[in-house]
Amino acid sequence: MLMLLTGCNALPDSGPTEAQVNHTQRDPKKNTVGYGIVQISLDLITLLESESPALFTSLDADNTPRNPGKNDTVGPGDILQVSIYEVGSALFSPTNAGMAAASGGVNIPGASTASTLPPLNVDGAGNIRMPFVGSMHVTGMTTTQVAQAIRTQLKQKSQSPQVVVRIVSDIANSVMVYGGVRHPSRIPLTPNREHILDVIALAGGEEHSNESDEDYIVRLTRNDRIAEMPLKVIENEPAQNIVMQPGDRVQLTFQPRNFSVLGASGQVTETQFTTPTLTLAEAISRVGGPLDSRADPNAVYLFRYENADILRRLGMPIDENATTGPVVYQLDMMNPNGYFLAEKFMMRNGDLIYIANSSSNKFYKFMNLITTILSPGTSMGGIAK
């Protein structure tokens, strides 16, 4: 019997048993990452469902938007197109001056001349320079206000000047959209005040349109603050489809969600979700569930780096500066209640399921090994006879 036990202990395992997992968790020398074990229950599921990701609406919680206007003001980097309409002797139209000379120096009051100046760049200081006006500060002004300011400067130099200004390259009122979109580009904002889904659509939408929206992560940078959220959440929660502000940066990233399964399961594998949502029961069934010959069904574990706030609410010790921490959720599949709980427990990207080996697994391994050595090809049933 002693030799039998020694032989059993010498055999290799594919992973720890329930007793070994629990023992390691209680031993500070072995539990170097500081994980805790939590039984899956209805209270736990309710707690996890109450967790909310970093919201886009929180980006402006501590600071005022830089430009709460309507995206129609001029700023550094913009390019302006200025058109001037003059009556009589014109400053900007040599054609009209030639007509006046041909008529003996007599201006023709009814003749109106339109002159379009070369594009004017708004420099880093927010100024433009134009003939007969000089330098003019235009940052923060609408195109109408810029036109009025130019007209005021030309009144003493031109007869009844009328000015039209439009922005031909809007840099100040724009956002950058890049990453997993069809057409990464700078998207100009308009007085219509585009939302985040609008600018993603204007950039061509998702690069892989046949993939699930849950596999796309939207990363928004605003005022040096960053928030991330699945594209599907923004589509389902209108409050998160926030209005874009000049200078925002939107990155769309394709991140296929997957989970891994190890231990005494029908299949050891890494598997993609392929569906908008996935429960623990669905994930276990995809790999064949626990093996009857090896598994311990009351020791099904899910390893996850959980949100630090959730861990604190569970009463687990965690560093005050940490954002996540390791935790092991345990499911008892020998209890019928566990199947109902598994149907409610939602999987997340990167989860790892481990189905523990049965404590009697080594004995059966040892007996199979003895059978193979003594009589290759003979079953245990034959030896028993």
From TrEMBL:
MF GO annotations: polysaccharide transmembrane transporter activity; porin activity
Signal peptide feature range: none
Domain Polysaccharide export protein N-terminal span(s) in chain numbering: 69-167
Highest taxon above the source species: Bacteria
Ranges where the SLBB domain occurs: 259-355
Compartments in which it is found: Cell outer membrane
InterPro entries reported in the protein's UniProt record: Poly_export, Poly_export_N, SLBB_dom
One Pfam family per UniProt: SLBB_2
UniProt keyword annotation of Zinc present: no
Principal subcellular localisation of the protein: membrane
GO cellular component: cell outer membrane; pore complex
GO biological process, one term: monoatomic ion transport
PANTHER family xref list: POLYSACCHARIDE EXPORT PROTEIN GFCE-RELATED (PTHR33619:SF3)
Protein name: Sugar transporter
Organism: Komagataeibacter swingsii
